[in-house]
Give the backbone structure.
Amino acid sequence: MTATSTPAPPLPAPRPVRASKPVSTMLYRHRWMRLVGLLSLPLTWLVGLYIVSLALLLVTAFWYIDSFTSKVIPGFTLDNFILVFSEPAYINTSLRTLGIALAVTLLSALFAVPLGIFMAKLASPWVRAVLAVAITLPLWAGYLVKILAMRITFTEEGLFNWLMTPFGISGPGFSIPTVVLTLTYLWFPYMALPVYTAIRQIPVNLFDASADLGARGFTTIRTVVLPLLWPALIAGSVFTFSLSLGDYIVARFVGGANAQMIGSIIASNINLNPPVAAAFSVIPIAFVVIYLLVTRRTGALERM
Amino acid sequence: MLRLTRPAKVAFGVIVAIVLVFMYTPLFLVIINSFNVAPIANWPISGFTLDWWVRAFQNEALWAAVRNSVIVAAGAMVIALVLGTLAAFALQRYDFFGKSTVNLLIVLPIALPGVVTGVAFSNSFNNVLEPIGIQVGYFGMIIAHATFCIVMVFNNVFARLRRMNPSMQEASMDLGASLWQTFRLVTFPQFRTAFVAGGLLAFALSFDEIVVTIFTAPAGVDTLPLWMFNQMARPNEATQVNVIATVLILLSFIPVYVSQRLSRAEEDER
């Protein structure tokens, strides 16, 4: 009875709800904050250090050298580009480099496809595992180690010439074919592994269907396997092509006197004539960016 | 199954054999030549000696180069792990304007020729930062190496995140865990192997790098590849190089073994 008359004690004023984890809650509510938090460091690094450096280099391509003091003078001239695209020796070097990179890519693909087919479809599981390790192992053996290895193989007194002596043949020595072989040696696994993975992923019933429809082995390879391999071949070629295109160490060690590549010219000019070196570095950048854009349209890069 | 005639199978086998011979003969020649009496590589070798091995292990400059390489690779790896993981999360979890450009930006340092990257960095270090009083010195190398190592971590972590189930993290947050707790206890254990694999690749990539190093190493500092490069440039003295190359060939079994273990651990986790 008295209970009804007794006024209820006043409720405490509702306290504002405080999130127990303010930072987490705020980040959870604001998507853009999370994104900014994630991207700010990598983007600052890549743009602030790398892209700015590249831009500064490319700007130098429009500067010129004072012929008396041989100091770099900021300014605007297209002479460096004109020189790069008109000097016959430079044009030859660019074309040679392009040819070498294409040859390496072709040679790698030519060996990667049969190797992949053998590993994925013909080898027993045990042989397959051994081959997979055997192909990846040289990948770790070191860039200079492999160049040294090829140099020892093809040197004047080396194994290759020793093997060829009975036939009266002298090996390629240090020349452009040796450069192509060495670059193939370096980058072949980058082609072989995606190709092998792609062949493994082809459903078995496609092979059965092809055989049921009367196709023989090579017809199946040509009409079923190869069309499905394009993305892998393109992904592999990104590596074999662009890594070969920019290389100059191989040419230096196994190329002999006439195997200069684009990189050689950039490297030898960077101290003597930075504007020409900068103008020259536009060529591999253009090749690689165009190649990346073209391959991205094929969708091959997403599968890497 | 793929049906091939017997001669065709043999032909495939022969091609595989050629590839393997082509891959491994040069490496064996390096190993054998590290015991060669003759200071210039030849075949058959002139005689057996352990002299180069002894000299290489007593070579102070060589050990200094190894130390430098380890320091640079470790520094580059740590930076690449942080930046690569952050970028992988951003690009995997969010859609935003310019996403494909960011992707290209990460790939670019490895896709562009090393000589371009090296020349660009050395230009910035020597012609921009030095005049205003900033000496990058040793750190220049680490900065340059980290830049092209990011993609290694990024690729590995990104691929793993794509396969992960985001509802696990939502569950964790619903149960009251903070972002950091969720990351530490739920998310990170799920991509730990990819994180380690990416770090390992970044370390190896940096340890092996020569072209960018040529342009960014401060005067008088050698990394191991730089030391090898200088030795190889003087072919008549290139004897201890064979020893180091042999050691590196033997060491390459370690990452292959680790990656086998990692991929097995990955299969167990799934």
Q: What stands out?
A: The radius of gyration of chain B is 23 Å. Chain B has a mean pLDDT of 88. Chain B is about 75% helix and 0% strand. Chain B has one domain: 60-269.
